[in-house]
Amino acid sequence: MDNVNKLTAISLAVAAALPMMASADVMITEYVEGSANNKAIELYNSGDTAIDLAGYKLVRYKDGATIASDMVALDGQSIAPKATKVILNSSAVITLAQGVDSYSGSLSFNGGDAVALVKDDAVVDIIGDVPTPTGWGLDVTLKRKLDALVANTVFNAAQWEQLPKDTFSGLGSLETPAEPEVPLFSCSGAKIVPIYQVQGAGESSPYVPEGAFESEAEVTVRGIVTARGESLFKGFYLQEVKGDNSPYTSDGVFVFLGEAVPEAIQPGVEVCVQGKVKEYFGLTQIDIKADKKFEVGAKGEVPVAAPFYVADGETLAQALERYEGMNVALDAGSDLKISRTFSYDYAGRRNNMLVSYKEPLMKSTQLYPALSAEATALVKSNLENQLFIESDYKPADGVIPYFPDFNVETGYIRVGDQLTNLQGVIGYSYGAYRLVATNTITAGDFIRGDDRTDAPSVATKGDLRVASFNVLNFFNDVDGGDTNPSGSNRGALTLEEMVLQRTKIVSAITAMNADIVGLMEIANNGFGEKSAIKNLVDALNEKQTPENAYSFVEITYADKYDGKYFGTDAITVGMLYRGGKVTLAGAAQAIETPEQHASAGSVTRTKDGKTETNPGNDAYQRHSLAQTFKIHDESLTVVVNHLKSKGSGCLEDWANFEESVDPADQQGKCNAFRVSAAKVLGEMLKDVKGDLLIIGDMNAYGMEDPIRVLTDFDASKSDRDIMTASWTTLDGKVFERQGSKIEKGYGLINLNTKAHGAGTYSYSYNGELGNLDHALANASLAKRLVDIEDWHINSVESNLFEYGKKFSGDLAKSENAFSASDHDPVIVALSYPAPVVPPKPEPTPKDDGGALGYLGLVLMSLFGLQRRRR
């Protein structure tokens, strides 16, 4: 049954339950849902005698309700035979024709509300289904057709004619008001202004005065339509056929219509328009919404798309301004690289793709300390180096309109790929330049940068490999798994999704060939038969040889919350190891991290002379897991971490008036709280004997405060203080009432930086790359480094390939390792050579000085040689 039939069935069922009159002369003949308080209902008496309206009232079924609420009682009113009465909202600004009988009252309804005429609580007539669909009757006038002047207790949409919003001229008359004739617009005799002259060579049109948003007078332009805008940009694009041959001025402009584009306006058609030049949030456009002044000419060819390029010394944004409104083509010389694959754009509220010039964007605090001159400059540079790739209509889930061959195996897109052969028009909205595609491309139009590899290059390097892997909420609830402390499921919603997620994780870990694996975002549901970690290890070991089988590290009973869990969060960290390669040395250690608790009213903040006190604040972090291993005769302690996320707020964000915005230092929310955790880790681990490796998702980029605190920070050489969080506790005791200044880092070595420099990454957010996943070592472990690799199987891939189906529609999935998570695994190859055992010296034969003794030596020598040759 389709939705319309379902709704009709429901309406009939509701109507059957309502008291109703057998027949009636009074009926609703017009419904006005206009702007503000402009609400009106027209009633009509089809009978031959006047009707006293005592007992009549108008009611509404608000927002889909099936029980009506009263609006206007009509006691004391009457309606003449074959006449109308208009009921108005008492605050309506509606002028009625002379002689129209009217009455004002508390008439209040909106789109989504059915309205009924009731007498003695029985429905006489109704407009709108009950329950009413969301948005029905919004911003319209509905007038009953003359051949349907019969009251109905069930709404019949076919009996009504829809008129534009705020149409009042027909109230009081059954006749539909005639639409006034609008004379056709003509460009004949008008002065035609070249489009490139309207655009000018600056950021805004020379026709728009400084400080204003529109021209003082209208201009007339003529050009060829290059594209229609039906959704993202409501209008069409005009372009000069020849232009002025200047690279500094655009030959195209957007014409804003504000509604559906007439069918006659198609690419290749010549159109002349007249309207004011407007700068609409950064987009130069000709606005013809009000008067629709356009004239359609002959059809020809669409102007050839201009090759897009960025000139020496200019930013991508400056280049895009030169092409604003034009039809362009991306080629190899455009040098535009994918900086965010096809996924959700929070600003535009749609799926799209982001490209940047020459290389993908890097997060400023991955490369430079927060608020440094270099970091600030990079933030600005990144904002000027973005072009969004769009389709006009919002695409269906799992579909890229301009890339119909998009698929998980051969039609993938990766960050760093160069985009070529795409054509489109350049617009500007939501604070950024956007190319609205007008053609389609194939997989061959992406020039691969760092292409997929079946395994990381370090998988066979070194004597021992340690990996860090955030597994994106691996929960086994749908497979009968135990619950976590919160009882929530953040992971797969079906068994099919969960099996696919597990298969992809197993594929990735198997290819890594790591001997110790730290896990983040695994369900915190214990270590028993129904735990997520046991579920994962069992599936993983099906793909391993017996000597490479994995076990998991389990914390002691004393460290378990409620005798079962590792902390109180829904997710936790875990650790896997190959017993054939390493040996546990003692019990695992749970390292508690600080909590933050500030009761309401305990902290104040002041802005613009106004002082406020804080609401209650409670913030938590996940515990860290430490385990010491023996490799030959060497000791290695591995610590797995997952620090507080950047998205949830802490007390310091409130104190800085940043609880609802991204912090200005670009380090995300709760930065000081993560610094507190780094301080605890540093203190707890500074006296560890042997080698030390701290791994995990630290939720901090390479040069952000928590990483600097754990590595080489020196307050005497810094222009900015690093502070811990206030109001923190540790193990139920006060840790720091006031945040403290960090004077010196704990001296660990960032292995990625040591091997590859600062420009590494394991995560992509909002089109910027950086490392949230780290491997930090003490000096003795750093000497063992053979290599380290962020295996780019996730951060550069589309998240539409992940296990979840909610936003991917019918897009096929794959069991391969790509998009197994949203973080790349980090794999460290280390040198732990087996000890060299010196050979035992063979005893020297006793010389008896005779021939027999000499012969014995010869025989022994020969025997020994033969034995060695075996």
From TrEMBL:
Residue ranges of the region described as Disordered: 593-621
Listed Pfam families: LTD
Keywords associated with the record: Endonuclease, Exonuclease, Hydrolase, Nuclease, Signal
Molecular-function annotations in GO: endonuclease activity; exonuclease activity
SUPFAM superfamilies: DNase I-like (SSF56219), Lamin A/C globular tail domain (SSF74853)
InterPro entries linked: Endo/exonu/phosph_ase_sf (IPR036691), ExeM-like (IPR047971), GlyGly_CTERM (IPR020008), Lamin_tail_dom (IPR001322), Lamin_tail_dom_sf (IPR036415)
UniProt superkingdom: Bacteria
Signal sequence residues: 1-24
Domain LTD: start-end pairs: 16-157
Coiled coil: none
PROSITE patterns xref list: LTD
Name of the molecule in the record: Endonuclease/exonuclease/phosphatase
Protein's organism: Shewanella baltica (strain OS155 / ATCC BAA-1091)
